[in-house]
Design a protein that fits this description.
There is one protein chain. With about 475 residues, the chain is of the alpha/beta class. The chain has one domain: Amidase signature (AS) enzymes (Alpha-Beta Complex), CATH 3.90.1300.10. Helices cover about 40% and strands about 15% of the residues. The chain contains 15 helices and 13 strands. A hairpin with a 5-residue loop joins β12 and β13. The termini are close together.
């Protein structure tokens, strides 16, 4: 691994309370050495500070957060915490419903004030999470960046001139800067994993259906809900709290998933990993490729067996993803009035127009192509403990741009080739930071596993995280 430079990190100016992980906070609450109210006040103050510089929030909810933290404090004092996350500060992306809180979806069009929580929010609330506010997203989460007509540009805490990625960019910035320990993101084509890579945090896209969703995403069954944190242990904790059945989500598999937080520690020695180096679209930045080579060397030194792999054959994976994603965009914008449509992000209108041109027959063929690819992907994963790849093919680039300037690319999907195939396959995938480059930016590693085996993916991620911490 390249040496970590002495440049500032996003946590350098954060208070000690804001640096603590969720697991650390819970231990301190249990020993009565720390109060959820103290932590809520510190993280709310931190939210205001970073909001001025980085624009990570749509709304910061001081009153409701302090009320929830006060209730949690009383429970801890009485020795009766209500759940596994009691008092842990948490943020929600402005795409997921929070009861009585206006959801804008990053859009100027009229939002909705839901009368009930989304299933994931229900489960987090039942576990005792303290909600700090709603984080930024591009309009309707349509791209792997975080900028749009409603909230403007969200910026990368490692370098504010650069993008934090997206569409869960606000959540990633909050995590990286210490505004809470747990952050709820969504991922339809990399929207958890790209910002996790660009901001140096942990992001996990679960197996589809592990975390229930309602209302259903317009983008269909490529869309997932998952945790964004600073440690793998916190991702495990949060994922397990959000896992469950909700009858409002008909797309969920009714079979129970194995617990995400109960897999034994993994010894990397003798583990068999596939190495996926070439995305189906775009090219890999040489700096990224070199960092991946260093990560591979580390794993070889730890005794892992590493085998090059290619994705299963498919005539055009980028086109296949576009048929799902662009049609979803068309479906979402079809709900808007002509006047509201005029104010929509031009890039979103462009892909929606392309999606609206697909016929019903085109979409049926796309679903069948996806099924063939997904089955072959399952078969490939069955031969390995996990498949490893770079977290993203490119480094963070200029904020407010859809593609790296001068790249010749047209759409974000072209540089997100390590992300969207995993959404098509519905497999779990985690991102962890592997190093900080000499230019002061983080770079990450992606761990992909078989469907349903989120616990195994996170156990491998934890083992690699420990390897880098050693």
């Amino acid at each position: 691994m390249a040496p970590t430079p002495s440049a500032a990190t996003p946590l350098d100016d954060a208070s000690e309370l804001c640096r603590l992980s969720g697991t650390e906070l819970l231990a301190l609450y249990a020993s009565h050495k720390l109060s959820p109210v103290e932590v809520a006040r510190a993280t709310l103050a931190r939210a205001e500070t970073i909001q001025e510089r980085l624009n990570a929030f749509v709304r910061i909810d001081h009153e409701s957060a302090l009320a929830a933290a006060t209730a949690s404090e009383k429970r801890w004092q009485a020795g009766t915490p209500i759940g596994a996350l009691d008092g842990v500060p948490t943020t929600i992306k402005d795409i997921v419903w929070v009861k009585d809180s206006l959801a804008r979806y990053g859009s100027r069009s009229p939002g909705v004030t839901p009368a009930s929580d989304a299933p994931s929010v229900v489960l987090l609330r039942e576990a005792g999470a303290v909600f700090l506010g709603l984080t930024t997203t591009p309009e309707f989460g349509w791209k792997a960046l975080t900028d749009g007509p409603l909230t403007g540009i969200t910026r990368n805490p490692w370098n504010p001139d650069l993008t934090p990625g997206g569409s869960s960019g606000g959540a990633a910035v909050a995590a990286a800067t210490g505004v809470g320990a747990l952050h709820l993101g969504t991922d339809g084509g990399g929207s958890i994993r790209v910002p996790a890579a660009f901001t140096g945090i942990v992001g996990h896209k679960p197996t589809f259906g592990r975390v229930p969703a309602y209302p259903a995403s317009a983008f269909g069954t490529v869309a997932h809900i998952g945790p964004m944190t600073r440690t793998v242990a916190d991702a495990q904790l949060m994922l397990q709290a959000m896992s469950g059945r909700d009858f409002r989500d008909w797309f969920q598999n009714p079979l129970p998933f194995a617990p995400a937080d109960s897999v034994a520690a993994v010894d990397l020695k003798g583990r068999r990993f596939g190495l996926w180096r070439t995305p189906p679209s775009g090219t890999v930045d040489p700096t990224i490729a070199a960092a991946f080579d260093r990560a591979v060397k580390r794993l070889e030194e730890a005794g892992a067996s590493l085998v090059p792999v290619d994705l299963p054959a498919e005539e055009n994976l980028l086109d296949l993803f576009h048929r799902h994603w662009f049609a979803g965009a068309a479906a979402r914008l079809s709900l808007l009035s002509p006047g509201d449509l005029d104010a929509v992000d031009p890039g979103l209108r462009e892909i929606a127009a392309q999606g609206a041109a697909y016929s019903a027959v085109d979409l049926i063929h796309a679903h069948n192509r996806r099924a063939a690819f997904g089955g072959a992907f399952d078969a490939l994963l069955a031969d390995y403990d996990a498949i490893l790849s770079p977290a993203c093919a490119v480094l963070p680039f200029k904020a407010g741009e859809e593609v790296p300037p001068g790249s010749g690319l047209k759409r974000w999907t072209e540089w997100a080739g390590f992300s969207y195939p995993v959404n098509l396959a519905q497999s779990p995938a985690a991102i962890i930071r592997s190093e900080i480059l000499e230019n002061g930016l983080p770079v990450g590693l992606q761990i992909i596993g078989s469907r349903g085996k989120d616990g195994s993916v996170l156990a491998v991620a934890a083992a690699i995280e420990s390897l880098y911490a050693a």
